[in-house]
Design a protein that fits this description.
Elements (H helix, E strand, L loop, with lengths): L9 H12 L5 E4 L7 E7 L2 E8 L12 H10 L10 E5 L9 E5 L9 H5 L10 H17 L16 H16 L5 H12 L9 E4 L8 E3 L5 E4 L6 E4 L1 H12 L2 H4 L13 H12 L6 H24 L10 H6 L1 H14 L1
Antiparallel strand pairs: 1-2, 2-3, 3-5, 4-5, 6-9, 7-8
Helix pairs in contact: 4-9, 5-10, 6-10, 6-12, 7-9, 7-10, 10-12
Length: 344
């Protein structure tokens, strides 16, 4: 190929692909989803064959964009009951690319990013319909939380202290480190969350995906989850943080999250039904969901601030996203978090 998007070195990666797979002719497309790590689809003979995932441009370290760690998690889950893409190789060779990257087989299917995507799943009623698809997402989440991290080789992901305690400290620190503007509401919500934090000893602990929502899954036409993707925020800790995030995405208006999700008006179950299903299949008693929803929106506000900073400094490659639009919702998200916390 003669040209490539920013962040993809066609010459060196092309040479690596030729040496590994004997393929010389390919095209590269930037995936339309993903505003953090950069993700590319590699097309061979007009069909998607592989996916390459790398840190954002200008990345200097830190676990949030550690794609080698993300790739290792997916590889470890390859033989588990959790559906993940097949990892071909995790490459850390500056002669191929100046940052580590994950090279994986393309997983067939589609993510749910828009009403048109959701409309592809049958209406039902029946075993393969929209409600079944939604409950399948909950079942897959429970499967993630059932993973024996020692058995799959991820026991070293354990850290001292509770997950929320660690992440409150981590995300606030990241905002303070990279933000180019003042966002006092971020600090205000942080303090309120820290003050009202549930006792981690009362929460089930396991592998928490960290960004579990419909556009981070790949679906078959009948609505089955073919794979869960975007494991960059995965950690070991209170798994109900995942459930709170999933529910918050359904209840907080899209104008704040900038992420479209199906609603009950479009055939998605009500949050209470999803919580009941999770309790049934996971065996975990669900509590403090409102708090976990608030925490999720605050974390999303912190992430959005990071996206905004990378966009204005030109470190998001060829992703077509307006910096001011990305940054405008940070304070609104934080206010949504405070509203959820006050209702909890």
């Amino acid at each position: 190929m003669t040209s490539a998007p920013a962040g993809f070195d066609a010459e060196t990666i092309g040479r690596w692909i030729k040496d590994k797979f004997g393929v010389e002719d390919f095209e590269v497309e930037v995936m339309s989803i993903g505003r953090s790590n950069l993700t590319f689809t590699i097309m061979v003979d007009g069909l998607p064959r592989w996916v390459l995932r790398r840190p954002p441009l200008g990345h200097t370290g830190g676990s949030a964009h550690n794609v080698a760690r993300e790739g290792r998690i997916m590889a470890a889950l390859g033989d588990s009951s959790v559906p993940v893409p097949h990892i071909v190789e995790i490459v850390d060779d500056p002669e191929v690319l100046d940052v580590p990257f994950v090279f994986m087989d393309h997983c067939p299917g589609f993510a749910i990013n828009t009403p048109a995507d959701w409309a592809r799943i049958p209406e039902g009623p029946g075993p393969d319909d929209k409600r079944s698809c939604a409950f399948g997402m909950v079942d897959t989440l429970a499967a993630i939380h059932r993973v024996d991290i020692d058995e799959v080789g991820l026991g070293d992901l354990r850290r001292d202290g509770g997950l929320i305690e660690r992440q409150l400290r981590r995300w606030l620190g990241q905002v303070e480190q990279i933000s180019m503007r003042d966002t006092p509401i971020i600090h205000e919500v942080h303090d309120a969350l820290a003050e009202r934090m549930p006792d981690p000893a009362g929460s089930p602990v396991g592998l928490a995906h960290g960004d579990y929502k419909p556009n981070n899954m790949i679906f078959a036409p009948e609505g089955t989850v073919n794979a869960v993707v975007d494991w960059e925020l995965t950690a070991v800790g209170e798994v109900l943080t995942d459930l709170g995030y999933f529910i918050a995405m359904l209840s907080v208006p899209e104008k704040y999250t900038s992420i479209w999700v199906p609603t009950p008006e479009l055939g998605f179950p009500e949050p209470a039904e999803l919580i009941d299903r999770y309790q049934e299949v996971s065996g975990h008693e669900v509590h403090d969901v409102g708090y976990y929803e608030a925490f999720a929106m605050w974390k999303l506000a912190c992430i959005r601030e990071g996206v905004y900073t990378r966009l204005v400094t030109g470190k998001m490659g060829d992703l077509d996203l307006d910096p001011e639009s990305a940054g405008a919702g940070v304070e609104d998200l934080a206010r949504q978090a405070m509203t959820l916390l006050e209702k909890a």
